[in-house]
From TrEMBL:
Belongs to the ROK (NagC/XylR) family. The keyword Hydrolase does not apply. Coiled coil: none annotated. InterPro entries: ATPase_NBD (IPR043129), ROK (IPR000600). This is Sugar kinase. Keywords: Kinase, Transferase. GO terms for molecular function: kinase activity.
Length: 305
C-alpha cells in the first residue's frame, strides 16, 4: 500500500494527515503554526510525519497554505495571516529539503476542488467546477483530475472578479467584486451597515425569510450575482458540474437549489439541461484529501513519464 501526505498550514493551526491509496485518512494530527517564522512549523511537520509514517511508502506531499501563493515556484507571497518571515518564502522546496519527500504547493480552493473531483460529488465527471462561499469566496476547476492553474498560477483567483459597478466593498476587494457581494463576510457586513444586528449570514437569511426588506435585498443580491458569476463560468468553460461548499452554501436552507434555478435562467438554451449545481458532501477534511490527491496525481505522472 502506498500513502500520500496532506498538509494544511493555517494562520493559527497546521494539520497533517496520512492518506492511503483508497483516499482514507489513516492518521492525522495538528499543532500550532508559528506565524512569525516558518522554520519551526516545518520542523514540527517533519517530526509529526516521522511519527505517523514509520516505514510506510510515501509517494509525496501536498501542502495548502494561506495565499496569495506563487504556485509556479512553490512560494508563499504576501499573506495577512502569517508574518514577515513567511513572505516570499519557498515553502514547498524547504519542506522537501527537510523531509526528503516530493512536495507540491496549492491553494485551499484548488485542493478542495481536486478532492471533489476525485472522491466527492464530482467523482463521475471530467470537468468539475468548485466554489466555496464562506468567510471569503474561492474557486477551483479540475479537468481530468488536473487542477487548472493558468499561465501564471492564478487561474480561478476569482474574489476580485468585478460584477457590479460601484457595488459593495469590503476589505481589499474591489467594489462590486464577487466576494464583496456573495461571501458570508460581505453579506454580514452589508447587513450591519443597514442597521441590522446580526453575527453571520444565516441570521441575515433568517431576517429575510421574516420579510425584513433590507435583509431580503442583501440575500437576493448574493444569490443573483453568484448565479450570474456561475453562468459566466459555464459560458466560458462548460463544466459538467458546479459544486458549492462553505458555510453560506451548506448551512442556509435552499441556497444551492435557488442558485441553480437562477443559473438555468441565465445560460444558453442548449446548456440548460446540463446545468448541475450541487452542494459539497465532503467535510472539513476536503483540503487534506485534496492535498493527498495532488501528491498521488504527481506520482502517477512521474510513473507514466
Amino acid at each position: 500500500m502506498k500513502y500520500a501526505v496532506g498538509v494544511d498550514i493555517g494562520g493559527t493551526n497546521s494539520r497533517i494527515a496520512l492518506v492511503d491509496e483508497n483516499m482514507n485518512i489513516v492518521e492525522r494530527t495538528q499543532f500550532r503554526t508559528d506565524a512569525h517564522d516558518p522554520i519551526p512549523t516545518i520542523v514540527r511537520l517533519s517530526e509529526a510525519l516521522k511519527d505517523m509514517a514509520g516505514d510506510k511508502e510515501l509517494v509525496g506531499m501536498g501542502v495548502s497554505c494561506p495565499g496569495p501563493l506563487d504556485l509556479i515556484n512553490g512560494k508563499v507571497l504576501n499573506t495577512p495571516n502569517l508574518h514577515d518571515s513567511w513572505q516570499d518564502f519557498p515553502i514547498a522546496g524547504e519542506i522537501e529539503k527537510v523531509t526528503g519527500i516530493p512536495t507540491y504547493l496549492e491553494n485551499d480552493a484548488n485542493l478542495a476542488a481536486l478532492a471533489e473531483a476525485v472522491v466527492g460529488e464530482g467523482r463521475d465527471y471530467n470537468y468539475v467546477q468548485f466554489l466555496t462561499i464562506s468567510t471569503g469566496l474561492g474557486s477551483g476547476q479540475v479537468i481530468n483530475h488536473k487542477i487548472y492553474q493558468g499561465a501564471h498560477g492564478y487561474g480561478h483567483e476569482v474574489a476580485y472578479a468585478p460584477l457590479w459597478r460601484n457595488g459593495p466593498q469590503h476589505g481589499k476587494i474591489y467594489p462590486g467584486g464577487v466576494e464583496a457581494i456573495c461571501s458570508g463576510t460581505a453579506i454580514t457586513e452589508r447587513a450591519k451597515k443597514a442597521g441590522l444586528e446580526v453575527q453571520h449570514a444565516g441570521e441575515v437569511n433568517d431576517m429575510a425569510k421574516q420579510g425584513h426588506e433590507a435583509a431580503m435585498e442583501i440575500m437576493d443580491d448574493a444569490k443573483e450575482y453568484l448565479a450570474n458569476f456561475i453562468a459566466i463560468l459555464i459560458a466560458i468553460t462548460d463544466p459538467e458540474i458546479v459544486i458549492l461548499g462553505g458555510s453560506v452554501a451548506l448551512k442556509i436552507p435552499g441556497f444551492v437549489q435557488e442558485v441553480e434555478d437562477r443559473v438555468k435562467e441565465k445560460v444558453l438554451t442548449e446548456l440548460k439541461p446540463y446545468v448541475k449545481v450541487r452542494p459539497s458532501t465532503l467535510n472539513e477534511d476536503s483540503g487534506l484529501l485534496g492535498a493527498a490527491c495532488l501528491a498521488f496525481e504527481h506520482a502517477k505522472d512521474k510513473e507514466a513519464a
